[in-house]
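Journal club prep — side note

Before the paper discussion, L.F. wants everyone to see what a predicted structure for a comparable chain looks like in token form. Sequence:
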Amino acid sequence: MDLTRFGLLAAIVIAGIAAAIAWVRSRGIAPFVRPPRAGEIGVGFLTEFGDTLGIGSFAPTTALFKLFKMVPDELIPGTLIVGTMAGVIMQALIFITSVAVDPLLLAGMVLVAALGAWLGAGIVARLPRRGVQLGMGVALLVAGSVFALTNLELLPGGGEALSLEGWRFGVAIVSSFVLGALMTIGIGMYAPTMILVSLLGMNPVAAFPIMMGACALLQPVAAFKFISSAKFSYGAAVALTAGGIAGVLLAAFVVKSLPLEVLRWLVVVVVLFAAVAMLRSFAAAPEVSPRP
């Protein structure tokens, strides 16, 4: 393993441990602390299982939380960031060392994504409920549309490169910053990163270490914002973690690959339905949130 990858993995692990410690310590001051629920554990398992196989987890998890009213809308972004953190770190440890993408490009995109998430989380953590509903409604519409275009093979197929130079390198870095910021409102990085590297002529396989490494670092970074402001559901985040770890291990070491076409279309339907529900909630009169 080269020094850049080793340093990146070390930073991810250290950030993850620090965020986990802050999470545990927040139990005494968090406004809503309850045991994890079986349905939430199931959501974590299913979405992180699909996440490891390349489907992405943020949009499906947001959709299921919304449709089954598991978590109040305004707490969903923080719950996603905190609850899926451990599973994504595990994915990064697996994929960063298995795909030979350019170390400088990998490190640059991961670090600027974390910076974008730090700034984005500070904004999202202060948004009122209806602001979160609007943001997540739009995010779900974008995610559903991207999933549909991917299924229809209408997006670029990419090239064979595993590195970038010149203006393409700059575009990748700037885009990664923007995607990191947008992730804190619920637009996952997986599909957008896959599209980005393909448009720039890279092998789509290169997206896996980039997107997983970026998420693994930016989620602990962003988690501090949501934990300090108590804008997440403690119990639901624990459930996502428990189910997610099991889903990642099963997908990475046992299943490894599946015919996912039907599942991808199911995700499109669920995500778009949830987008409509979220935007309808935004348009309706503000309601009292249930206990998360």
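L.F.'s comment for the group: The CA atoms of residues 87 and 245 lie 5 Å apart. Keep this in mind when we get to the figures.
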